[in-house]
Amino acid sequence: MKLLAAIFYLGAFAGVMAVAHFTGNPEAGIQADQKNPEPVETDVEEVSLDEHLSAFNGALDRGDFAGARSALEKISTDKSVSSETISLVRASLTGAEAAAKKAETQSGETREQVEQIGKDLLLLEKDFTGFTERQLDFSRVATQGIQSASDTAAQIQSEIRKIGGRLAVIETRLEEVEKKAIERQPEPVPGPDDAPEPSPEPPTPLASIPRGVSVSFGIGSIDFTAPARKSIQSVAEMLIKNSNLQVSLQGSATGFSSALGTGRARAVKAKLAEYGVPAERVTISPNGGAGADSVSISFRKKNS
Fold first, then answer.
1. Which residues face 300 on adjacent strands?
2. DSSP conformational letter for 286
3. Which run of H or E residues covers position 297?
4. CA separation (Å) from 228 to 112, 178, 211, 275?
5. Sequence-distant (≥ 6) Cβ neighbours of residue 2 within 8 angstroms
6. What do you get for the CA distance between the two ends of the chain, in Å?
7. Each residue of 49-94: pLDDT tens digit?
8. What percent of the chain has pLDDT over 70?
9. Hey, what domains does the chain have and what are their CATH numbers?
């Protein structure tokens, strides 16, 4: 009887320990054994695990890795949680920490890149500002150069107008001199009616007459030099001695309009008239223009 009683008590004790194992509370196991010998299923552990997992996931979402590790420790100490679940939760924490560290590293690199881009933009802005200033300086210099060129062109135009006015005055004076020279030509004095007409001097052979004479002038001048007067006088004497000859004058000027060359030719014609050469024996060629500062005198026979 004593042996059977011992076996009974041992079996009851083993049942109490089994209940304590599943409930985690030896007293509860004992109470369960006394009040309700049949085990009752409850969801206390599942709710506790869900709360721990919710706390773990919330900590990860916030980036609170200390809170996540605390939740992991609570999950790990829960004997109802399998080792596979604990390994998965731990792997999630490790992966999240690694991802956060990588993101932090990339964020640091991105921040450095943004700072470098900012520095490059500052340098670019400085270069652009310098370029703009140089462009403005060039524009100011170009504007000054254009203004200076415009002023110079205006001065040249003014000088040209002045020279044109002077040439017009000179041409007028030459016409007056030519007219006066023609008027001063002596009229022939009539001789006695019975006086025989003097025989004309034989003309000089054309072969002995020079084909051309050049009368030189100073630059921009219309005044005669001493050698020029001597040359014109020689031409006049030659024309007077050879009534079958006439001359053509062609004036030119260096760096001036053809008006100065024509004015010089008219001055030579007026001078020849002063020496007694009729105006109809002297023609002025219209081909004078820019060239040497001279008047070319060409001889030819009448009507040739």
1. 246
2. T
3. strand 294-301
4. 92, 17, 17, 14
5. none
6. 185
7. 888 889 999 998 998 999 999 989 989 998 888 888 899 999 999 9
8. 68
9. 2-100 (no CATH), 210-301 (3.30.1330.60)
